[in-house]
Amino acid sequence: MSRKLKGIAAAPGVAIAPIVHFHTTLDHIPTWQVGPDGVQAEVSRLGAAIDEVTAGLHSLQQELSSAIAKQDVRIYDAQMAILHDPTFKRDVENEIAAHGVNLEVALQRVIARYEGVFAAMDSPAMRERAADLRDIGRQLVVALVATERTKYTADGRDYLFAAEEFLPSDAGLLDREHIRGIVTAHGGKYSHGAILARSLGIPSVVGIEEIMLTTSTGALAIVDGDAGIVVLEPTQEDLDHYERQLREQRDIERRVAEVRLQSSVTPDGTHVRLCANVEGVRELDSLETGTIAGIGLFRTEFAFMERRQFPTEEEQVAMYRRAMQGAGGKPVTFRTLDVGGDKPLGYFRMPEERNPVLGWRGIRLCLDWPDILYTQIRAILRASALGHARVLLPMVTSRSEVVRCREVLDQLVQDLRDTGVAHDAEIELGVMVEVPALVHVLEDLLPIVDFVSVGTNDLVQYLLAVDRDNQRVAKMYDPFHPGVLRVLQQIAASAAAAGKPASVCGEIAGDHWFTPLLVGLGYRELSMAPVFLPRVKLMLRSFTADECRDLAARAVLMKSTREVRRLVQEEIQVRWERFLTGSAEVDA
Ligand code: PEP
Ligand code: MG
């Protein structure tokens, strides 16, 4: 009998492959019993892991020697001393032999014991050693788990990524060619990890709390990213069912793909610009520039997060130029660094915050560290000489923040002009509308910006007071809430009255059930993960602008989310199904 676990559908599609556990912290480690015959094997694994971490520390030291002070590079000598301390090694070996535990568990226990001893010492310097120890432990576990993982992935087999959480920084861990699906214990549909999974086209289910406890690496499973289900120990019947679903899905994709190269216009001639959201430079290679109106959201922070230190101005210029070339001459909207919340920068010390989502993030952080903002905007300006670039500010709360950013921009334009550096002096400046209060002061703000882009992922979380990363309240995170629709209506109306373009770049822009409503509310630019573009285009080509307006007008007056969903089901879904079964034809 198979076991079916229900979670949250985070990225569409079905995947069938063995699970591979990914552990990146000391808290979540694989556990097994070791008999007397197995002790030697564990001791050998310890030796290999120590060698690997030593090599990693050496190369890190070398890499950093030109960037940081000599005495700071010596921090790594202290770590090296712990790693090669014979007492430490002996204690770990004794723990394995005495208690029959695997190496990861022995490491965790010995480090916890040492930490207790250091923490009780009077000297602050000795207490600091506890942090080094923890770091060494973490590196050893990462090395061990990576070795285990390659057993399953090195020979080119497909796999399902399983972890407590899929964080934006984990994207670097993935072997893109063979990862088929993602399943995690935590997270929500609108978490940045889920956004990345959708953007990479990897079926995902999040919120399966027991995934790391009740499965083991190598076990076959099915990820159903449409229904939010994970099937463990699938029977032949389950496999047949999902293989069939996979075939049907490919058929649907084929039908949807037929509109790929057609224009994004309603049957009565209303054009809507469909743009791509891009998270990393690597995605640029697969961008089909013929099918997009531009890059509507370039989340620059992901490129910052993949690195070990802040990119220099030159490195940023190269990256932004690449983005502009990748967009094939179409406009690129560069969002300035939106770190904080669930997107920490490893090399930038941020304080522990009780509510990071309400904390020091986005433009707040950049205005406190203007060097970051100056360098980034200067680099975007230099890249803008290649074509049409726009600057987008994240997490804006008030007009005064935009005034300050405008000053930075004007000053940089002046500097570049004075020094004869090529740039677009007319570069457009826009704001993300994702903080509810901004909606109510939009009229004051619109005269000093060139465009607005609605970040519904955050806007919805703040409007509904529902954490986008918390699976316990995931059901309440529903953008079809009439309150959300009315706010979206208000934003579109304010922008239209000021004659400024408004786009949507949150995840609902790529949700085809939302398309007629957004068009009906007045949005003429939608930016989404490219994987969703054909579906959205098909929807767009199925409803006239009048029909969209009528649907939106009815939806905003509804009394509950359920009523809105019923409307979507009865009037939007039905037409979609008619098209897919071939009983409705969309005009070319
Ligand atoms: C949003 O909040 O809708 C958005 C596009 O930004 P992010 O998802 O990166 O927070
Ligand atoms: Mg946001």
Give the secondary structure arrangement, pairings included.
Elements: E1 3-6, E2 8-11, E3 14-21, H1 39-64, H2 70-73, H3 75-83, H4 86-99, H5 103-119, H6 124-153, E4 159-163, E5 179-184, H7 192-200, E6 204-206, H8 211-214, E7 220-224, E8 229-232, H9 236-257, E9 273-278, E10 295-299, H10 301-305, H11 313-326, E11 332-335, H12 362-368, H13 370-383, E12 389-393, H14 399-418, E13 428-433, H15 436-440, H16 442-445, E14 451-454, H17 456-464, H18 482-498, E15 502-504, H19 515-521, E16 525-528, H20 533-540, H21 545-556, H22 561-580
Parallel strand pairs: 3-4, 4-5, 5-6, 9-10, 9-16, 10-11, 11-12, 12-13, 13-14, 14-15, 15-16
Antiparallel strand pairs: 1-8, 2-6, 3-7, 7-8
The chain binds phosphoenolpyruvate and magnesium ion (MG).
Brief account:
With 588 residues, this protein is of the alpha/beta class. The protein folds into 3 domains: 3-25 and 150-234, 3-Layer(bba) Sandwich (Glucose Oxidase, domain 1); 36-144, Enzyme I, Chain A, domain 2, CATH 1.10.274; 243-581, Phosphoenolpyruvate-binding domains (TIM Barrel, Alpha-Beta Barrel).
Question: Would you mind describing this structure in some detail?
Answer:
With 588 residues, this protein is α/β, with parallel strands linked by helices. It has three domains: 3-25 and 150-234, Phosphohistidine domain (Glucose Oxidase, domain 1, 3-Layer(bba) Sandwich), CATH 3.50.30.10; 36-144, Enzyme I, Chain A, domain 2, CATH 1.10.274.10; 243-581, Phosphoenolpyruvate-binding domains (TIM Barrel, Alpha-Beta Barrel), CATH 3.20.20.60. It is 47% helix and 13% strand. It is built from 22 helices and 16 strands. The protein is globular and about 75 Å long. The protein starts with a strand and ends in an 8-residue tail after the last helix. The protein binds phosphoenolpyruvate and magnesium ion (MG). Phosphoenolpyruvate (PEP) binds at residues 195, 297, 299, 338, 434, 455-458, 505-506.
